[in-house]
Design a protein that fits this description.
Helix content: 55-70%
Largest sheet: 5 strands, parallel
Number of helices: 12
Radius of gyration: 18 Å
Strand order of the largest sheet: 2-1-3-4-5
Oligomer: single chain
Distance between the termini: 43 Å
Shape: globular
Length: about 220
């Protein structure tokens, strides 16, 4: 029985996704989350989740950082990014960072059903109207290299990196993870080596480079 996690902070949109998903796949188990921390908690508690529909701009998530976190910590889970942003360059970046598909929020329910079926069948999926433009968009060598480096981190190392990007000190990180401070320092040494950086400032900058502007916020402003 396939299992789906709908990750979006808008209840009405989650309800629409749930209905379309139920039509797409029989006997589908559906979970919901309204923030990235809730997503990560559910993934830890529900190891059988097969697919996530992930909003790029839900609380706790900043652009591609949440996608990178999920791919680093739970590489066996497929992720379809759901976003109001349909810029081919953003879609290309999401695919390069491990997304199995990309679904603009303007998509119809038929496209959503097609996307869920395709990804659960281990296929990559993009809306037909965007496939040509995305295929002609070149991957950034920087993004490709960064995705590979982030994928080399262990789940715990990625958590440490996330806390570093938030500006937490080693002792604070140790308290959050319930480990000793020397363990955090060991993780940082490994993180610096794998990311090719010299200090925590550079490491934090790398993760923040995955942030994207939320089109909805731009319109509101």
């Amino acid at each position: 029985m396939p299992s789906l996690l709908i990750a979006d902070d808008h209840p009405l949109f989650r309800a629409a996704l749930r209905g379309a998903a139920a039509d797409a796949v029989a006997d589908l188990t559906v979970h919901e989350a309204d923030s990235l921390p809730t997503v990560l908690t559910l993934l830890e508690a529900e190891p059988d989740i097969d697919l996530i529909l992930l909003d790029l701009h839900m609380p706790g998530n900043h652009g591609l950082a949440g996608l990178a976190a999920i791919r680093a910590q739970y590489p066996g889970v497929a992720v379809v990014v759901v976003s109001a942003n349909d810029d081919p360059r953003v879609i290309r970046r999401a695919l390069d960072h491990g997304a199995a598909g990309y679904l603009p929020k303007s998509s119809g329910l038929d496209e959503l059903r097609d996307a869920i079926r395709a990804v659960l069948a281990c296929e990559q999926w993009l809306p037909p109207a965007l496939r040509a433009s995305v295929s002609h968009t070149r991957s950034s060598p920087t993004d490709a290299e960064l995705a590979a480096r982030l994928a080399s981190l262990s789940p715990q190392q990625f958590r440490v990196l996330s806390f570093v990007a938030e500006g937490l000190l080693n002792k604070q990180i140790a308290d959050r993870l319930a480990v000793q401070e020397r363990t955090v320092k060991a993780h940082l040494s490994a993180i610096f080596e794998r990311l090719g950086v010299r200090n925590r400032t550079q490491a934090g900058v790398i993760l923040r480079s995955l942030e994207l502007v939320d089109p909805a916020r731009v319109v509101a402003d």
